[in-house]
Amino acid sequence: MSKLFSLVTPAHNEGANLELLHAEVSKAFEGLNWELIIVNDGSTDDTFAVAKGLTQANRRVRLLSFSRNFGKEPALLAGLKAAAGDAVIILDSDLQHPPAVARQLAEKHEETGADQVIARRNRKGDGIIRTGLSRLFYRFINHLATVRLTDGEGDFRLLSRAAVDSLLALPEHNRFSKGLYSWIGYPRETITYENAPRAHGKTSWSMHGLFSYALSGVIGFSAKPLRVVTWLGMVGILFAFAYVIWLIVRWAMYGVEVDGYLTTIGVIVFIGSILMVSLGVIGEYIARIFEEVKNRPDYIIAHDIQQETGD
Ligand code: UDP
Ligand code: MG
């Protein structure tokens, strides 16, 4: 049998897109041996029914359906675990990651043997605010984190069996895939493609969601925020020390005078705020440690549907 390509797609309320996705994948992967794994991440629309219909019409399609919405990261993890392929291609189910480009990834992999073949998109058509915030995020995280991330390089990529197994060997629960892909290493190739708007429906990401995603990237791959807290404390000590010396000198020269109400309040508020921020930073790490030690499963699969025979 020829090499098997597993296409893994997380789907949250993508009922309107799945049939088109399947049709395009069938067309693009014509002549290759492939399977499509749809992970229904607790959709509230007809995603389950549509995907189930696809599994019944075609034995190349497998449906994993979560018991509720767990998020894209757990959905990807479930898909990667289920994938039987010699290479796995991760793609969104809203057709923003064109199956034709996925085919190019497969070809590049055959040609070069690279363990990671990444599809990098430009940001054409994205909102100004989101583009700006993304830029800021990449600058920030590359400055802080132990891994390098590149704007436009996301989950749309091909991973060899070795790369997938390496990812699956990482035991952490709070997964930030963009960082993990970079962390596992392996030879990589990149192709670029035009950013496309979603076929149907709307994005499931809110600003708040994106923000906490960015935060989990920083916390997951860097201890620097903790170090910043230490530095803040040290700078604070230096200031306090200089201030006290100045007070003593003044006292020696002019004696005691009772004013400086504003200074006192100012210093209290300043130190209080620094303490609060520091506790918040430390709290973020502790919260994640707490999540990890609870060791709950990353998702619950309620249905796993694949037709055994037919085509
Ligand atoms: N997705 C998911 N669970 C979620 C949110 C999103 O499985 O809780 C899937 C979604 O169906 C899509 C992919 O993740 O296939 C990317 O989501 P979306 O298109 O909303 O995000 P964007 O394209 O804006 O990054
Ligand atoms: Mg999308």
Provide tags for this entry:
eight-stranded mixed beta sheet, elongated, 52% helix, 2 domains, binds magnesium ion, 8 strands, 311 residues, alpha/beta, binds uridine-5'-diphosphate, Spore Coat Polysaccharide Biosynthesis Protein SpsA, Chain A
Secondary structure blueprint with pairings:
Layout: E1 4-11, H1 18-28, E2 33-40, H2 47-57, E3 61-66, H3 72-82, E4 87-90, H4 99-112, E5 116-121, H5 128-144, E6 153-160, H6 161-169, H7 177-184, E7 188-193, H8 207-221, H9 224-254, H10 261-294, E8 301-306
Parallel strand pairs: 1-2, 1-4, 2-3, 5-7
Antiparallel strand pairs: 3-8, 4-6, 5-6
Bound molecules: uridine-5'-diphosphate (UDP) and magnesium ion (MG).
Magnesium ion binds at residues 92, 94, 96, 198, 203.
Written overview of the protein:
Strands 7-5-6-4-1-2-3-8 form an eight-stranded mixed β-sheet, sandwiched between helices. The chain is elongated, with a radius of gyration of 25 Å. Helix content is 52%, strand content 17%. It has helices at residues 18-28, 47-57, 72-82, 99-112, 128-144, 161-169, 177-184, 207-221, 224-254, 261-294, and strands spanning 4-11, 33-40, 61-66, 87-90, 116-121, 153-160, 188-193, 301-306. α1 runs parallel beside α4 (99-112). It folds into two domains: 4-202 and 296-306, Spore Coat Polysaccharide Biosynthesis Protein SpsA, Chain A (Alpha-Beta Complex), CATH 3.90.550; 224-294. Magnesium ion is lined by residues 92, 94, 96, 198, 203.
